[in-house]
Design a protein that fits this description.
By secondary structure, this protein is of the alpha/beta class. Helix 4 packs antiparallel against helix 5. The strands form two sheets. The protein has a five-stranded parallel beta sheet with strand order 6-7-8-3-9. It has a domain of 116 residues: 3-Layer(aba) Sandwich (Rossmann fold).
Amino acid sequence: MLTTTTALRFENVRRRFGRLSVLQGVSGAVGPGEMLLVTGPNGSGKSTLLRCLAGLLAPDGGSIEYAEDGESHDAAGRRRRAGVVSPDLAFYGELTVGENLELFARLRRTPPDRGLAVLDRLGLPLDRMASALSSGMRQRLRWGWALLHQPRLLLLDEPFQNFDAPGERIARELLAEHLAAGGSAVVANPSTLEFGDVAGRLDLGR
């Protein structure tokens, strides 16, 4: 059981892909209202770690503990609760932005109103087919999906990838507001390290 001051703690997390050892005993922690920045060169395991924390990939060893309001949640619970921005997140190209949002809202069992407000901030046209979105617009939609259910755990894998300057500015504003609301823990693997409110850094450099 986690203490009330720690939302997420992971210890000695290990993960292999065949003979390749990607994570070799990685540990860290982040509390509510805090951001943990994960750094390291390509291939150091940053994305793999975030996938393990999100409950999308099972580690080969170590422990991951996550709690909300004193209640612990396993990998399935983290998958339901975490908001994830990742280059791997795809959409249904045959649906519009609005239809994708409605589908995501049903999967999250939450009203789409919050998502509509976020998509409006991000400048996404609801009637645009997802297949017609540029790479930057797809990244904006990933942010809308991640924040749809106001998650207490936010995992950001290359969150500013493919953004132009206005897109990155809006995403940074949304992230700052999310942190300022309190109670949320953020783990981020950004392409740029220019963050003002970072509680800790975890370097996976080899």
